[in-house]
Amino acid sequence: MLRGKRVLVTREKAQAKALSQTLERYGAIPVELPLIRIVRARQTNQELLHKWHTFDWIVFTSQNGVKYFFEHIGEMKPPTWPKVAVVGEKTAKALQKRNVVVDLIPNEFVAESLAEALKPLVSSNARILLVKGNLARDTLREQLSNIANVTDWIVYETTYNEEAKPQLIHFLQQRMIDAITFTSSSTVHSFAQAVSGENIDLSFLTIACIGPITKQTALQLGLPVHVCPHTYTIDEMVEQLHQYFTRGE
To answer: pTM of the entire structure?
Structure first.
């Protein structure tokens, strides 16, 4: 079981709390060490800032996209909203809290499912605004471009948190954690960058990824993945981590 296990929470500081609280409910000891920083994009597209509401569809792929989109537009309230499509329940809830109607949320919380679900709903000349971060995968853009005209709007930037490296290396060398959680590909990349060339044995570590894209990134970087839930949520990842440790006892 998870009780007493020390679990590293690598996600950005402002978003770590929800994961830590879930781990604590299982009796685990969350160790927060943000490996990434997420900030509002330093520059914004002034044309999009004034014309975003004229698109046919607006697509959000993360809670960060929602948060920083609203930081950019401020108090601006358009006469009407475009239709809204999202990836993931948490993204949908973040919009609903702001009284924005979500028109489409695919069954699977990955970009590929969103493009598939949108296909029958848009015409070839439809205009889609894709709200994203600077490190977003190109997959969704490419797939949407096959069915409509797509415009990107980068509203936030993700960077590697270099200050976390010494503490991370210390934790790993002293084997002070039992498991590590990755909630995005960027957290995996940052971890791999931090341990690169350090000659650290990771065989003692249980690695949990929130979904298939994050898992794929970890495997491509040579990291084993022990836990990856079928439902791509924090709650399910922690539940699967709990079951993994329970089976091992």
So the answer is: 0.77
